[in-house]
Amino acid sequence: MLPSLLNKEIIFEKETTSTNAVGTPVETYSFMKQTWAKVYVYNGGSDYDIEGTLPFTRSEFTVRYDKNINYKCRILYEAQYYEIGHIETIGRNHFLKIRTVVWEGETENG
Length: 110
Known about the structure:
The protein is 0% helix and 72% strand. It is an all-beta fold. Strand 2 and strand 3 (52-64) form a beta hairpin. It is globular, with a radius of gyration of 15 Å.
């Protein structure tokens, strides 16, 4: 992979557990790192469910290898969150290919 193909800026957020005012554990996400990636949207469509039509987009992000990136992370790209479904190591820990699907019902603005 040519490093010059890593031309889109993305943000990784890591899942953390905190407690609310009454002491109940709450899953939240906090900033982990900002980096450059190659972004490829390879699939999209709609699933049908009791709630109605649920649109989805599947994308692939290629980034430089980082041992801290795992399935408890999510990606923020162009004001949309992506849930990590699969992480593949490329080469001898040179790059990570991360397959994702759009995070249901949440954007950076709301």
